[in-house]
TrEMBL record:
InterPro entries: Peripla_BP/Lac1_sug-bd_dom, Peripla_BP_I. GO terms for molecular function: DNA-binding transcription factor activity; transcription cis-regulatory region binding. The gene is galR_2. Residues 9-185 form the Periplasmic binding protein/LacI sugar binding domain. It comes from Enterobacter asburiae. It comes from the Bacteria. This is HTH-type transcriptional regulator galR.
Length: 186
């Protein structure tokens, strides 16, 4: 997504500045404040930890502020979000349609709605297809490649090799998991 925003920025004669808060409320706030201090005309904000009330205050001050991956009541037209539960349901259902019946899941350990919604989508697909929800097949980790490696390693040990497929919170975790599986000849 950053690449697409960058392309549009350059096409319109603007510059792109990026600040990252990594799901930490204080770091998210600092990143937004830094961009405002640089007098950015517009902000595309992915802030999962800052309270709605604070984002509402900022959005009232900055007409060019858009929130991604979250819906702020009263500002729905300036928010872009995905149906994370449905997306995870689709991914898990695809694995089931391929014949898998023991599907692991690598989940983000961040206390954010995305992680909860995606995990519920995974469980929904299992239940709808008459498959058991086995907690030994679910592992939590940081939503990055290293977290995917660690979660995959834990899943492989705790599940005793009983899984036939693995769904993941995001591509980064999946890449880490693939490395572990490849290293173990799976």
């Amino acid at each position: 997504m950053v690449k697409a925003v960058e392309q549009v920025s350059y096409q319109t004669g603007n510059f792109l500045l990026i600040g990252n808060g990594y799901h930490n409320e204080q770091k998210e706030r600092q990143a937004i404040e830094q961009l405002i201090r640089h007098r950015c005309a517009a902000l595309v904000v992915h802030a999962k930890m800052i309270p709605d009330a604070e984002l509402i205050h900022l959005m009232k001050q900055m007409p060019g502020m858009v929130i991604i991956n979250r819906i702020i009541p009263g500002f729905e037209k300036r928010c872009v979000a995905l149906d994370d539960r449905y997306g995870a349901w689709l991914a898990t259902r695809h694995l089931i349609q391929q014949g898998h019946t023991r599907i692991g899941y690598l989940c983000s350990n961040h206390p954010i709605s995305d992680a909860e919604d995606r995990l519920q989508g995974y469980y929904d697909a299992l239940r709808e297809n008459g498959l058991p929800c086995n907690d030994r097949l679910v592992a939590y980790g940081e939503p990055d490649e290293s977290g995917g490696e660690q979660a995959m390693d834990r899943t492989a040990r705790s599940a005793g090799g009983i899984f036939t497929a693995v769904a993941s919170y995001n591509d980064s975790m999946a890449a880490g998991a693939m490395g572990v599986l490849n290293d173990n000849g799976i």
